[in-house]
User: Fold this.
Amino acid sequence: MSKYSFTFLILTIVLFSQCSTSTPDPATFNQPLTFEQAEYAIVIHGGAGTILKKNMTDDKEQQYMKALNDALDIGERILKNGGSSMDAVEQTIQSMENSPLFNAGKGAVFTNAGTNELDASFMEGKNLNAGAVGGVSTIKNPITAARAVMEKSDHVFLSGRGAETFAQDQSIEIVDPTYFYTQRRWDFLQQIKAEDANEQDITPDKKHGTVGCVALDKNGNLAAGTSTGGMTNKRWNRIGDSPIIGAGTYANNATCGVSCTGHGEYFIRYAVAHDISAMMEYKGVTVEEAGDFVINNKLVKAKGTGGAICLDRYGNVAMPFNTEGMYRGYAKPNKREVSIYKE
Ligand code: ASP
Assistant:
């Protein structure tokens, strides 16, 4: 072989190997349009954990079912009338924050110090804009503050006093910290503390709960939000996954919107919300397959308890959870489902 043909051969090999190993643009991984497009869709959760029918009175069950249906009504009305998924998410979550039933806003759990520290996050699927607040004690609706961080600041995540000052500057409703006191949550803190003192083994999924919403509007835009009081008896200004973009909340119009609930430390380590979206983006799987794999396979292996609500850009819903129950529901044109237990 001449010197020239040898050089040509080497060049050809190098060029060919570069072509075959270069990373394709992730946008080309998007699924083909194989689903019917829903006009709009909304999905909510009110926390996952040890929720058993045998521990629930009929009255309590009805209260939860009503609160979930009321929340869906608010979001569905906005979407049906052509409103944005962001308004639907914010107002739906506000209604759950205002209910003492859920561990968010008014019904937030207590910290070890007997205070309430709230976290929330918000994400817009159109442009991956996001906002969050962590460890706030005076903002009545943390979800509204999270959205304001996204829309009215240069930042993504504000915490503590700074987040409260920002909210006040934005004329977001501020309340006295005693607003968040509920007898039920206070009694539960005492119970958990007593069990801790007796070195009883407390399953983490008794301590949590959270609210979340994902919506798809008539313009094809997804939005997701999550709001929580965190975990009962938390210490040292602990912050969980709920205000962390990619862990507790994620939204991308190219894939799906996700809001998580569960033992936050695991959801942070496994970047659960983003992982579900990434599986769809990189592997082309459905929202159901992605949600099920991350919650019921990866997290279960890691011993992380909880669940997620997921909604893709066609309006397909997935609500996987690996606990006894998850307060959950969804609505689309002519379709609604609300449930609590594992069926
Ligand atoms: N994920 C929340 C946290 O760890 C709690 C929950 O969802 O129940 O703070």
In short: The CA atoms of residues 44 and 213 lie 4 Å apart. The two ends are 72 Å apart (CA to CA).
